[in-house]
């Protein structure tokens, strides 16, 4: 599939959309299309319904976490020392927001071609993590988007049933994020030693 | 027959059964585990109107151990044995899918003999997976164990072959990127030929025993119908898709490995019901036997590993690749992103079992509660792959 051709075709059919080809330097040469979230649904519908494309099958949906690399910089501070104001340089760590990415692999069962890889990016990793759900276009994204919501925290607007799928409902973190820290002790549920012992004693006193 | 009022979207979470307009009380049941391969790790929240299913949500995640996260902390080779544990009935095809993704990512060529070994072991895996499935399915219908034992008898013969070849019966860990781990031991090919030669007899036996059995037909025909359009849109793959009449087999479409060299047909169903899904597996086994006979006839001598491939300390160039194969349960894909380091930056499994469950509710709506058991059985799920 010629990605340049596809790009210009989408741009002609979906007014106002911005596309970018993300090159893939590896021998697989599976390049991908970065699409903007506002037009994602229209683009998806076009890819699915256009008679010569017919990407009716969304095979794989993947979440990826791209935290920005930590960089260090220097800032100048004024500090009081020896009764005088001095200029001091202090090293600080700067962490940019980074972003979360969702990748869709599309194939056509009717025309037997593919893959076309679509990517969408959130604005950051903290607050603005909303992306449109493509489940209304391809039902196969249903569980996979729930998984990404669960493990990465991307909120898919328009998903019919966005709930946690693998982790339990009370779990609060997103374990697939790169900065996720495992708990030191997995047995975080307190066992009621004293309570249990007291009850056991009471029980024994009645039978002894 | 009563009419149903539509349920609120959160009805399956509410513990209180509601009264519908017809006056019958809806019953919410937490159903399962009942399938032999879902012991304790899968259930369904079912809302019933009498015996009829009006809502169903599959609940899983109990077996989740974050396979993908572990693989991102491992080297590329290091996660190969973990792939065995995904679909623990088909460890060899899991190896194959992962190996294929890594080979696509790094541009590795596989020697001729290794390609044949992959086809032979992969198709043997398909035989024993489908044999298990039809055994389980008849067990689900209440055929108290005899057909299951017949299926397991055949599976054992194949597992014996796997044990002789790889040292393990289920967690075979046979493939490496660039080829296969070991070559065939002396006498193995002859033994395998005998097993494959005898296999159609088992299929004949099974078909004459069950395929036109009246009880089996009345329990499965017209039950759990999945339409072509929904199957495609929901990303259903494998025998389940083909039972709905969609001609899509990656061995024909992608022709990965050396599948373009073998003559075989792709069996298709007409109705997309449980019976079709059952028959498709029987028919696919016959095709696998054909492939096996051709592969075992043509296998050349030669190396089984690409000598140039560096397995230990393997560091592919930065980039990404999606590789997929036709696993016995459907499309098994691996999506890998490399940042040039020894471990993958992102390692994603596209599991057929999980995505085939998407339409479980659609297939069960309006059916009797007893049919749910069979419909789930015909999906062919393994929880190691659903939860990962």
TrEMBL record, chain A:
Residues 35-181 form the NADH:ubiquinone oxidoreductase 30kDa subunit domain. It catalyses: a quinone + NADH + 5 H(+)(in) = a quinol + NAD(+) + 4 H(+)(out). GO terms for cellular component: plasma membrane. Pfam families: Complex1_30kDa. Its EC number is 7.1.1.-. Keywords: Cell membrane, Membrane, NAD, Quinone, Translocase, Transport, Ubiquinone. It is found in: Cell membrane. InterPro entries: NADH_DH_suC (IPR010218), NADH_quin_OxRdtase_su_C/D-like (IPR037232), NADH_UbQ_OxRdtase_30kDa_su (IPR001268), NADH_UbQ_OxRdtase_CS (IPR020396). It is a peripheral membrane protein. PROSITE patterns: COMPLEX1_30K. One of its GO terms (molecular function) is NADH dehydrogenase (ubiquinone) activity. Belongs to the complex I 30 kDa subunit family. NDH-1 shuttles electrons from NADH, via FMN and iron-sulfur (Fe-S) centers, to quinones in the respiratory chain. The immediate electron acceptor for the enzyme in this species is believed to be ubiquinone. Couples the redox reaction to proton translocation (for every two electrons transferred, four hydrogen ions are translocated across the cytoplasmic membrane), and thus conserves the redox energy in a proton gradient. NDH-1 is composed of 14 different subunits. Subunits NuoB, C, D, E, F, and G constitute the peripheral sector of the complex. This is NADH-quinone oxidoreductase subunit C. The gene is nuoC.
Automatic annotation (TrEMBL), chain B:
This is NADH-quinone oxidoreductase subunit D. Its EC number is 7.1.1.-. Gene3D superfamilies: Cytochrome-c3 Hydrogenase, chain B. Residues 140-388 form the NADH-quinone oxidoreductase subunit D domain. It is found in: Cell membrane. Coiled coil: none annotated. GO terms for cellular component: plasma membrane. Its main location: membrane. It is a peripheral membrane protein. GO terms for molecular function: NAD binding; NADH dehydrogenase (quinone) (non-electrogenic) activity; quinone binding. It comes from Granulicella arctica. NDH-1 shuttles electrons from NADH, via FMN and iron-sulfur (Fe-S) centers, to quinones in the respiratory chain. The immediate electron acceptor for the enzyme in this species is believed to be ubiquinone. Couples the redox reaction to proton translocation (for every two electrons transferred, four hydrogen ions are translocated across the cytoplasmic membrane), and thus conserves the redox energy in a proton gradient. Belongs to the complex I 49 kDa subunit family.
């Amino acid at each position: 599939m010629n990605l340049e051709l596809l790009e210009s075709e989408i741009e002609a059919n979906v007014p106002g959309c911005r596309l970018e080809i993300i090159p893939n330097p590896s021998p697989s040469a599976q390049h991908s299309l970065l699409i903007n979230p506002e037009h994602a649904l229209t683009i998806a519908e076009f890819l699915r319904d256009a008679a010569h494309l017919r990407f009716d099958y969304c095979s794989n949906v993947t979440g990826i976490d791209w935290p920005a690399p930590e960089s260090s910089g220097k800032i100048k501070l004024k500090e009081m020392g020896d009764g005088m104001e001095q200029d001091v340089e202090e090293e600080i760590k700067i962490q940019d927001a980074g972003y979360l990415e969702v990748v869709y692999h599309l194939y056509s069962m009717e025309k037997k071609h593919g893959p076309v890889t679509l990517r969408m990016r959130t604005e950051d990793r903290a607050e603005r993590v909303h992306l449109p759900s493509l489940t209304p276009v391809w039902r196969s994204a249903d569980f996979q988007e729930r998984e990404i919501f669960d493990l990465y925290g991307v909120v898919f607007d328009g998903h019919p049933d966005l709930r946690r799928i693998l982790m339990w409902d009370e779990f609060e973190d997103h374990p697939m994020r790169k900065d996720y820290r495992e708990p030191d002790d997995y047995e975080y549920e307190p066992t009621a030693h004293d309570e249990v012992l007291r009850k056991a004693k009471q029980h024994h006193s009645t039978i002894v | 027959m009563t009419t149903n009022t539509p349920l609120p979207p959160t009805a399956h979470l509410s513990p209180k059964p509601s009264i519908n307009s017809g006056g019958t009380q809806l019953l919410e049941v937490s159903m399962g585990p009942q399938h032999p391969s879902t012991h304790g790790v899968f259930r369904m929240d079912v809302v019933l109107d009498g015996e009829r299913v009006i809502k169903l949500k599959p609940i899983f995640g109990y077996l989740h151990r974050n396979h993908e996260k572990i693989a991102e902390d491992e080297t590329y080779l290091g996660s190969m044995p973990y792939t065995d544990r995904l679909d623990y009935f088909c460890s060899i095809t899991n190896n194959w899918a992962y190996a294929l993704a890594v080979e696509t990512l790094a541009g590795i060529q596989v020697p001729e003999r290794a390609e044949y070994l992959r086809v032979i072991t992969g198709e043997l895996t398909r035989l024993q997976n489908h044999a298990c499935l039809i055994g389980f399915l008849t067990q689900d219908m209440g055929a108290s164990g005899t057909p299951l034992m017949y299926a397991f008898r055949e599976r054992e013969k194949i597992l014996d072959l796997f044990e002789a070849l790889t040292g393990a019966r289920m967690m075979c860990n046979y493939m490496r990127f660039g080829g296969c781990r070991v070559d065939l031991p002396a006498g193995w090919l002859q033994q395998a030929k005998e097993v494959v030669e005898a296999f159609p007899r088992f299929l004949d036996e099974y078909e004459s025993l069950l395929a036109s059995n009246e009880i089996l037909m009345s329990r499965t025909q017209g039950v759990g119908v999945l339409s072509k359009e929904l199957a495609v849109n929901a990303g259903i793959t494998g025998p389940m898709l083909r039972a709905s009449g969609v001609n899509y087999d990656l061995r024909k479409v992608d022709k990965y490995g050396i599948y373009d060299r073998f003559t075989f047909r792709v069996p298709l169903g007409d109705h997309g019901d449980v019976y079709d899904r059952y028959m498709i597996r029987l028919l696919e086994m016959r095709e696998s036997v054909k492939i096996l006979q051709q592969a075992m006839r043509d296998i050349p001598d030669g190396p089984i590993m690409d000598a140039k491939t560096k397995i230990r300390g393997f560091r592919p160039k930065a980039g990404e690749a999606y590789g997929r194969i036709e696993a016995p349960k459907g499309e098994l894909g691996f999506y890998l992103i490399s940042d040039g380091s020894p471990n993958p930056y992102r390692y994603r499994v596209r599991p057929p079992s999980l995505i085939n469950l998407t339409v479980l509710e659609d297939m069960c709506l309006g059916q009797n509660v007893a049919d749910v058991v069979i419909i789930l059985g015909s999906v062919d799920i393994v929880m190691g792959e659903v939860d990962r």
